[in-house]
Each structure stands twice: as structure tokens, then as C-alpha cells.
Amino acid sequence: MPLTDKLYETLTPAQRLAAMVPAMARRDAAESARLFGTAPKFHYHAPDLEFMRGMRAVERMALHTALAMHRETAQWLLCLAVVGHGLTPEGELPVEDLEQAQAQGQAAMRSAKASWLAYTEACAGLGVDADEAMRAVGVLGTEATVRSVLDTPVEPDPETLEAMRALMAVIVGEAW
Asked: Of 35, 14, 13, 15, which is closest to residue 26 (Cα–Cα)?
């Protein structure tokens, strides 16, 4: 029994797919064309893809940076507390341990500063303000964290800076 175009038009997507694959496998060009030609046509409206990719990049960059900075500043605060108090439940810490805690705290701040620098560079490349991007994606309390990081007299960690620059480049590259 020959199928009419009217019947072809009533096929569900799953039925159409189930009929199309065998038609293509047997190289039945007429049947494939008929199945394809009678498929419903839809028109879609969607936000601009480049804009949406850019927004996703801004969001991902801000969240990666916030995560890195909050982890590092928490480490710094812990080291600061150890150095500031210099005590354990058992008593006073040895000088070597205090120096190690101070060095770890400075390393955390160098890493946090590098993360922020790479992030602000990437944001500037997109024409976006880094602080506003953080607030836009809902990262709260970043201003105080950034201020404490930037006010610390340490240089950004070069390895972290390059790693974060590479990460930001990948995120931006996926967007554009």
C-alpha cells in the first residue's frame, strides 16, 4: 500500500527516524527525500548565540576566580591565625612552624593575587568590569576579599598567573 504525503506528515519524530535510517541504509533516495521533505518545519526564536556564549564565559570566569580566591584567602586567614596566635592546644609553636605558616600564607596570597590579575585581564579583553561581573553572577563579598588580596605586598605567583591566564583563554575561546 503506497503511503501518501498526508500519512508521512503524521509521523512522530521517533517514527520518522525509525523509517529514515533503513531508507538511508538501503540507499533509497526517493524515500529518504520524502521522509525528510514531509517532516514538520518549525521556526525558532532564541537569544543571540554569541551573546549567550559571552555571558556564559563571564559567568564561568567569575566563578572559577571566586572559587580560587576564596580557597586561597581562607588558607591565608588560617595561616594568619596560626602566626598571630602562635599557639596550639599543647602550647606554643616552634619558630620553624610559625615561619612555615607565614610562608604558606604568603604563597596563598600570591596565588590569589595571580588569579585576580588573570581574571581582570580576561574581563578587560571582553570589555567587562571584573567587579561588576562578580556581582552580576551573584558572588557576594568579593570586594573585601579582593581589597585584602590587592593590599597585600606580595607579587602574583607566576605559575598560578600563567595557569589562570590559560584557563581564562580557554573559557573565552569557547565563547567566541
From this structure: 35
